[in-house]
Design a protein that fits this description.
heterodimer; A: about 260 residues; 6 helices; about 30% helix; about 30% strand; globular; B: about 180 residues; mainly alpha
Chain lengths: ~260, ~180
């Protein structure tokens, strides 16, 4: 009997996965030309050594930001208004949201492009898309369900009601006076400098229409930096005991393809 | 000359350099194929699924917050795609771009060998972590540091997984050869 070793066996087993590698490589490269080109997130990747320097600088920045706020400069209301207005200027948003707004826990990932294009992927597998022409609903995990196509419902898409239940629909409005009204009605309860994922940020807590909103915003809100806010928690009470939703922005103003907002048959 | 890191290749890809992504493909394609094969049990489908994994990785590369974690991120994506396949929702969304490739039937891709068949059966029976540990270790050039990074385990745990996995494979093959 030949003296086989498991090492040799494994080597031979894995060899089969090298078959046609060059051919497949060539095919992939050709396909990349037709694929959506990835773009770097607006957050830059920094080598660890640079991150340590920035973390140290961030501590100083928090100190200076605190002093700046104490001695004058941007009021918390100004920063908050700037944050909300920045959001209103976005052409597209990609975010994740956990919401208890409908009474059940739902984790969704959503892409939204002004004015009404939307794609929502729910944790149970359901995908819903909506554009000016069509609204599509499909759950690939549910073999009994077929792709459902309806007329596009624009700004009255039911998915917007989910945002409403989450207390966040007002951020997506095109109605600027309504947005300004929302800003004016907001009462800042707390405003502090924090470190968020290693960067100097600010946490703004405000009350509006009986809800409590806690935003994490960039520490340099007045510059042309990235997202208007990074995360927001919405509470159904002013004591922050009843969390309605948590939204995390993943990307803003990305060049979203049209076919993201439709499910093909 | 030190090898170019995955992080550098990811950043170059994001700048538009497709050859950088091709380099990443060369580094990880075999591993992704074997992970896909665990789900498809068909080499041709595994190749197809692996291409899908890389296409998705390319499109979503901008979402990778830590470029030096490309390997673990890609493995995670491959496992998710494999799960989708098992749930029956994978459709071949590829565009075959003008390449007329005659693909041999699956059987012809495999070298007929009973011992390898037993090995494949044995691998199928392994615990998920043991299986992945073997795949990564052997396909990434037996690089302990790289394997640990992808599996997120300690050195001791990795050795336990590899030793345990190989012992099970040997036992199974021995038993099968005896009964044959």
């Amino acid at each position: 009997m030949a003296n086989h070793s498991i090492e040799n066996d494994l080597k031979r087993y894995y060899k089969q996965f090298e078959v046609d590698h060059e051919l497949l490589r060539g095919q992939l490269i050709s396909q990349l030309d037709q694929a959506q080109r990835p773009t770097a997130p607006r957050r830059l990747y920094l080598p660890p050594a640079v991150k340590r320097v920035i973390a140290a600088a961030a501590c100083l920045m928090i100190l200076f930001a605190g002093m700046y706020m104490l001695i004058g400069g941007d009021s918390s209301q100004d920063v908050y208004a700037s944050t909300i207005n920045k959001f209103s200027q976005l052409q597209s948003v990609h975010f994740k949201m956990n919401t208890l707004g409908s009474g059940e826990d739902a984790a969704i990932e959503m892409w939204w492009r002004r004015p009404h294009d939307m794609r929502m992927e729910v944790s149970n597998g359901t995908i819903i898309t909506n554009n000016s022409d069509k609204r599509c609903i499909f759950n690939p995990l549910d073999t009994k369900q077929k792709l459902r196509i309806e007329e596009g419902s624009g700004g009255s898409a039911p998915e917007f009601s989910l945002l409403s239940l989450a207390g966040l629909d007002w951020l997506f409005t095109d109605d600027l006076p309504k947005l300004q009204d929302g800003i004016d009605k907001s009462v800042i309860k707390d405003y502090e400098a924090i470190t968020y994922k290693g960067e100097a940020c600010r946490r703004i807590t405000c009350e509006k229409d009986g809800y409590l909103y806690v935003y994490i915003v960039d520490g340099l809100t007045k510059t042309e930096k990235q997202a208007p806010f990074y995360e927001v928690n919405v509470y159904g009470d002013l004591e922050a005991t009843r969390l309605l939703s948590h939204m995390e922005l993943l990307d803003v103003d990305a060049d979203l393809p049209d076919d993201l907002f439709i499910i093909k048959e | 000359m030190a090898a170019v890191t995955d992080a550098t290749l990811v950043l170059r890809t994001l700048e538009g350099d497709k050859t950088a992504f091709a380099e990443l493909y060369d580094r990880y394609a075999r591993l992704v194929r074997v992970i896909c094969y665990d789900n498809t049990k068909d080499l041709y489908k595994a190749q197809d699924l692996a291409q899908e994994v890389f296409l998705r990785a390319y499109v979503k590369l901008g979402e990778l917050k830590k470029p030096d974690r490309f390997g673990p991120w890609l493995v995670s994506m491959a496992r998710n795609v494999g799960r989708e396949f098992r749930r029956g929702q994978f459709r071949d969304r590829h565009l075959t771009v003008g390449l007329d490739v005659e693909v041999p039937p699956t059987e012809e891709l495999k070298t007929p060998n009973q011992r390898l068949d037993f090995l494949e059966e044995a691998i199928e029976k392994l615990d998920g972590q043991e299986k992945l540990a073997l795949h990564v270790y052997y396909l990434q050039g037996k690089d302990v540091a790289e394997t640990r990074k992808i599996l997120r385990v300690s050195r001791a745990s990795l050795y336990r997984l590899l030793a345990g996995g190989k012992q099970k494979l040997e036992s199974y093959i021995r038993e099968k050869e005896k009964s044959n």
